[in-house]
Amino acid sequence: MGRVLRTLAGLLALCVAAPSARAAGEDVEALVRVLVGEDQTERYDAYRALLASRPPEALPLLAKALPGAPLIAQNYGVSLVAGYPAAQTKAVHEKWAAGDAPYLKVVGAVALLRAGNAKAAATVAEVIARDDLPPDVMSFCLGQVSGLKDAAVLDAVRGHVRSEEPTGTLGSALWHLANAGDEPSKKLADRLLGSPSAGVRAMAAAFLLRLGDEARAAELAAALGADDLPYDAFSRVYSLLSAGTRLPAPVLDALLGLLEREPQGWSLTLVVDLLGDAGYAKAAPALRKLLERDDTLLSKAAFTALTRIPGGLTPDVVKSLLTGGDDARRVAAAEALRRGDDLAGLPAVLEVLAKGKTSIVRAEAARVLAGFRVRASVEPLLDALSDPDVSVRAAAVTTLESTLRVLYPYRRIDLDAAGYTSGKSPEANAEAMRRVRAWWASAKDAEW
Amino acid sequence: MRSRWPLLVLAACLAAPGGARGADDAATTAADVTEPGRKLDRALDIVVDGSTRVADGPRTLAVLVDPTPSLKSAGFVERFAAALERHAGKLGSTELSVARVGAKDAVVLPPTADRKAVSKAVGDALLAPRNESRNVYADLRTVAGSLAGRAGAREVLLVTLENGDAEDDLEATVAALRRAKARTFVVATETFLSDSYFASHGATAAPRGTSWTGGEAAFHEVPWGWLFQMASPHEEASSGFPPFGLARVAAATEGRVFLHAGPGGAHSCGTYAECLFCTAGDHAPAGDVTVWARLKAVAPLVAPRDEVYAAAAKDPAWRAVHAAWKKAADAGLVRSRPSLDLAGGTAKPSRSTQGAWAPLTGIGLSFPGYATRASRALEASEKIRAELEADLSKIGEADASPRWRAVAELVRYMLLVTRVNLIEYVAWCQDAGPSVAGKKERPLLLPEVATYDDARRFVGVGYGNWSLCHGARPFQELHLPGGPALRAAIDDLDRAFVGLQSRYAGTPFSTALRRAAIARFWPTVQGKVVPPPPRKPTGKDGEDAATPTERPSRGGSGGSDSGPTTGG
Description:
heterodimer; A: 448 residues; mainly alpha; 26 helices; flat; B: 568 residues; alpha/beta; 2 domains; 37% helix; elongated
């Protein structure tokens, strides 16, 4: 195993440095073995390596190895196979559709159906109609039928609109039927409104609301207000409602109630997202309280939601976020101000670009700087072209090119022509940087 | 919460319209007759339920529908049917008739109390909608005539989301409606600020027997076709009011206008102008949403046109605009001439409003010649601006109409924009232009490369636009030809932009400021001559392609899909 990992590490390094490198035959076998193995971390590394190189010899190996693999490995494998040309994958899909692994059977049949083989619909429907599959397998299967409006498939999916279905299965089925605009399912969903389970009632009401039945708003609001509403069910409700469904006031009030209650163990970002998407002004005070939370994902979601609410973020509130410990929030605040033509956040962005503790925030600062289009950003960007991290260099060069294009509309600047490539190390880019800085010295005070 | 404003106003108008001349008060503006809010259902609720206007007794409501795709997709058929059912209990002895704009016989269903028949007739009228320019006023007169002899109260509801700006005889229409004592309600969409689109773009023919009119105002108040602008800024600013003729018929008959707005779209910094400062269209300018109190202050008059012309002739702000416009036209700074002729204290429509730009671009690479002519245009522009500012400084706040003062400020602003563009152009012709066109050597240091490849053959000069949606200040960051003179001009423009935004935010004038543009220039290349496609034989001699009567789609900005902020 140690040898395999060392090989993997080498391959990964090779792939990062030179994405066009191909894995050697015996290493591809090893990677596929790891992919279908039991170790989740190694599986992910193997997936990344195969994704980067897509060796042709991997395809038959995957076709053979995946049917006996754990579900999550099958899912990675499906994703890998989808990246190969259709002419090469047809045989793989035919093999899977004829096999016994339910998820792969559906994947294969759906691929054939989408390629024009109408008979494959029966295979899809047959698997979906089963009631003996583990919930996670059925959820994955349902995830594959998105967009299919074949009558037999829809009928099979409708079979899972039952109160006793596991949450994941019911949620996936309703999501698919909602996307298909399936009117016959409404009666089935109606029946679920009397379920003793708050989660089932919530999902059913959300489904009906998504299909335009605004009279169900009260039922959804009541279910959202139930103390025993599980987070898992709510996440399915979120999926149903986040496709631009107009949320009536009682539902928004109920979501606000959830936000204020903060049920134990919940991630509130989904609640925040829905309130923001609705532009629900009443939620602004509660959202503002989240801006200073230690949970940066939640505070960022609150910030984004407030930018969508008219008057949600006053410039003063946003400016107060420019100082403070969280670099990502400072940069987000600066960008929000910039959208309203206030450049007060520029110093914060420049500071994060130069001194941000992680490459992620430095790269984000470089990206956000593109919106400012000011002379003061050029030198910090030139410095960032020599950042130790490739993602920061890549973001910096993109921003610098777009900024120079704006600042010098009567000139044409091409950093490639100077020999600069973000993928090369700062040392390798030294000569290119010398040229770029020499040009900047000559141009920075020029009239045009 | 539903506003009680309409109940109070409408309750005060229980007398049949046309009895008094109160509605023709020259001080009446479009704001007095436009209902706040932009929901079709609310408009239908107010009109269909006449119980607050007509205490008891018979009532006839004639519904005149202009069948356009936009009205159909607004769900008018369903909403109207629903409104009839909602108010069934209040319809009492109301009979409804249905008429269709553009039909050979406009009245397609005579008055009836049969709500289902009425709904069906409305649905039938919208079965095959077309995007077409139509004369709604002719059919309004027909409908008015059909109400003769009807007992009790008479009302007309005209629903037109696309037309109303092509008039044959507006005052005859008003007279016909008054003779019929028909209170007229209108559902329409807002037009563009003092819209001069059909004057500045000649391609679309007005319906037979009509002329295009100008937006929400009685005449074209704003100069159009400024030098180096690809579009006239006011033609892209939503006005907050319906076309003048529609407001006029409603005002003259003690009716109301309801604006309908479709789903709002994302903000756009310009239709023809590129925005240098936007990232993925994420600009969220402050002041882009209508503020009713401010909009009301700059609303246009809806009196008979002669009265509006007379008011304009006496208004010092409009007179200052007129003077500046005339001079700007003479100097070739605008492609239009004033829409009114002033003589003494009177005004009447001009016979010719077409002008031409000074020849500053086009075929030929005579950079020195262009620079010389542009310098002369710049001198003229500065003189005109100084004279306009002197005129405006003499006008007290209360001495002029707020609307015409706003127009004057917009003209002053456009002169400042023109100044920036001319200074830049003169400098471009002297240095940057010849350099990029290969007429002047300039050493290049990597990473700078040649703007164009050597193989190109340049034959002239053209221009494009950069949007001023973010104001003038961001342009200070750019390296533009013009040196200190340009920087000073941009500073002045920025000061004007900020000041005027502060004063006119929430009105279409604010939007118009943003839709103006800074010009950019480039050498043009030889075009490729492509012969036109062979004409297909038609079997008819001398058949020319018909001038299109379809309404053109317009780009615009400002306003709000929820309309003014009062009302429901």
